[in-house]
Design goal:
The complex is a heterodimer of chains A (about 400) and B (about 180). With about 400 residues, chain A is of the alpha+beta class. Chain A is about 65% helix and about 10% strand. Chain A has three domains: about 45 residues, no CATH class; about 90 residues, no CATH class; about 190 residues, no CATH class. Chain A is built from twelve helices and five strands. A five-stranded mixed β-sheet of chain A has the order 2-3-5-1-4. In chain A, a hairpin with a 7-residue loop joins strand 2 and strand 3. In chain A, helix 4 packs antiparallel against helix 6. The radius of gyration of chain A is 36 Å and the shape is extended. Chain B is globular, with a radius of gyration of 18 Å. Chain B is an all-alpha fold and about 180 residues long. Helix content of chain B is about 70%, strand content about 0%. The chains are: A alpha+beta (about 400), B mainly alpha (about 180). At the A-B interface, helix 1, helix 3, helix 4, helix 5 and helix 6 of A face helix 1, helix 2, helix 3, helix 5 and helix 6 of B.
Chain lengths: ~400, ~180
């Protein structure tokens, strides 16, 4: 079978069965499959391979997996304590079991990762830990009780439908324009000391949070602080007003990006996808076909579900951008040049000027050297290449002059 | 039902329940992932555990661009690759135990052995694509990302794997029965 006799490659027929073709292409392949017995046979074989593979089931995961994972998580939470109790001792105890340096290095890196993880782990998680796992054991009991009767084929289909049932829409249709707001404020403050605390307090008072905060204190210049605050949109104005009280406003701007269309479009697409899913579930529920048809339907449902979940995630992140406005704050300390000592003496200024002058000379010499090293090879090359023609032209130009004279 | 992606975002915020739910949803599939690729059940269990710990550890690195499923099996695949490298360096622990039925509780053990043996006869690269597609149900693009190969390569490997498997399965039952 070649593409000269068939409009589609065999691989494309397979991609069609896997739901990997664009809608247009899929419709064409489906039409072709109805007409061409050869391609239909290929599709049939492909489905056969898939359904034979589905015979390969493995035993259920052992219960010890849950137990051991629980223990391992407890270990993670304890790494911090282990470090205090003598991390070096623990390490030297483990080292003899390693066979070579490479493994040792990797283990060191892994230990570093674990340690970092344990240090950044919110304390809250450690406190909730035992509670969470008690709940896990309980939920698991419920699960096994639930799934036990669904061993039969019909039961499995029902379980699948229950699992794939669309979740309710995460957010209602917007009734007013949705605007993702951004503001930026630049301030100059006299007193830099309590600034960081004040900024944090402002964010907290308005139920917002600080997404990032950087402060720099260079030696001979004014200190600066830049922060990104996420503030509930409704409180943006009052937050900015409060921030402005921290110092003198140098620059302030606000902007809003209208995202209603994006939101509504995606909501519509999600609605369509849910309807498709519901239809497919109906097909599955009232199935009379063979196993391969059920498998194909299930695969299609899984794909649609994946799309829906992706769109839901995007929708939620957009909603967050609308709910929480972004404030870019940058603060500079008022430059207190006069307070840093007596005005510079004339001698020092002359000396500084001399140093500057010397530095400029050195810089320019180095600059020339760099330029020469960079350009000379090229200049030489072209000089060599162009020398002969230039000489020839020069001679040609001179010869008539000579003959005229 | 809360989506997997929602759950991992909750896990990023430090929710213990979200991890528990993800674990319950994917326990069997992650265990199956390793179990189909190695004969040693204990080893498979250990690597499955490692995978979930890695999810916990690296939750912050998840970005909502990919589905959680692709992310999870990407991690599982990396752990498996690391384990295989280790087995090569340290061959005292063999990856493959002597043949034993992979599914003692299965509905049709003979069928299972037959399919498993057929898959084992495929070329390694083709087998991996086939397993990721059939059992982990990843899209061509997701597989391509995990294997760091172009999508077209994935598609043709998958095609070759299925064609080869069809051939093997067509003759396998005779061989199997002949041996018994």
């Amino acid at each position: 079978m070649t593409s000269s006799t068939h409009p589609f490659e065999q691989e494309e027929v397979m991609a069609y069965l896997d739901g990997e073709l664009s809608a247009n292409r899929a419709v064409s392949v489906a039409a072709h499959l109805r007409e061409c017995t050869e391609c239909a046979a290929l599709a049939e074989q492909m489905r056969g391979v898939s359904s034979q593979l589905s015979n390969w089931s493995v035993e259920a995961a052992p219960a010890s997996l849950t137990k051991n994972l629980e223990a391992a998580r407890a270990d993670h939470a304890l790494v911090k304590e282990t470090k205090r109790a003598g991390f070096a001792g623990w390490l030297t105890e483990k080292i003899p079991s390693f066979k070579n340096r490479w493994v040792l290095g990797a283990a060191g890196a892994a230990a570093g990762v674990v340690l970092l993880f344990a240090l950044t782990l919110p304390t809250r998680r450690r406190e909730q830990h035992s509670e969470g796992w008690a709940q896990l054991a309980y939920t698991e009991q419920l699960r096994s009780a639930e799934t036990a009767p669904s061993k039969s084929a019909a039961g499995e289909v029902e379980a699948f439908i229950a699992q794939a049932r669309p979740s309710p829409p995460p957010s209602p249709e917007p009734t007013q324009p949705m605007i993702a707001r951004t503001a930026s404020v630049s301030l100059i403050v006299k007193d830099f000391g309590p600034l960081e605390a004040s900024v944090k307090a402002v964010a907290q008072r308005h139920n917002g949070y600080i997404a990032s905060l950087n402060s720099a204190s260079p030696q001979d210049a004014a200190r600066t602080l830049s922060a990104t605050l996420r503030i509930p949109s409704a409180q943006l104005e009052s937050t900015i007003a409060e921030l402005k009280q921290l110092g003198r406003v140098e620059q302030e701007s606000q902007s809003g990006e209208e995202v209603t269309k994006e939101f509504t479009d995606r909501a519509a697409r999600m609605k369509n996808a849910r309807a498709t899913e519901e239809r497919l579930l109906d097909v599955l529920r009232n199935h009379t076909g063979q196993v391969k048809d059920i498998l194909a339907t299930e695969q299609e449902i899984a794909r649609v579900r994946g799309d829906i979940e992706q769109m839901e995630a995007d929708q939620r992140s957009l909603q967050t951008r609308v709910d929480f406005a972004t404030v870019e704050l940058s603060v500079q300390e008022e430059y207190k040049a006069s307070l840093q000592g007596a005005p510079t003496a004339i001698g020092t200024r002359l000396r500084n000027a001399a140093v500057e002058g010397y530095r400029t000379v050195v810089e320019s010499v180095i600059g020339f050297g760099v330029w020469a090293l960079q350009s000379l090879p090229t200049v030489l090359l072209w000089g060599l290449v162009l020398f002969a023609p230039a000489r020839w032209i020069w001679k040609r130009l001179r010869r008539p002059a000579v003959s005229q004279s | 039902m809360t989506s997997d992606e929602q759950l991992i975002l909750e896990l990023q915020q430090g929710s213990d329940e979200a991890f528990t739910e993800l674990f319950l949803r994917y326990r069997e599939r992650v265990y199956g992932f390793f179990r189909r690729r190695m004969n040693d059940a204990a080893q498979a269990e250990e690597l499955a555990q490692e995978t979930f710990l890695a999810v916990l550890r690296a939750a912050q690195r998840y970005e909502p661009r990919a589905t959680f499923r692709a992310y999870l099996f990407g991690i599982a695949f990396n752990i498996l690759a690391a384990h295989r490298r280790k087995s090569v360096l340290n061959p005292t622990q063999p990856d493959r135990a002597p043949d034993e039925p992979s599914d003692p509780s299965g509905t049709n053990p003979e069928n299972v052995i037959w399919v498993r043996q057929a898959v084992e006869r495929l070329e390694a690269a083709e087998r991996e694509v086939l397993l990721l597609r059939e059992f982990e149900e990843l899209s061509y693009e997701e597989i391509a990302k995990i294997l760091r190969a172009p999508v077209n390569t994935v598609r043709s490997r998958l095609f070759r794997a299925r064609m080869a498997l069809r051939e093997i399965l067509a003759i396998a039952p005779r061989n199997l029965r002949g041996r018994k």
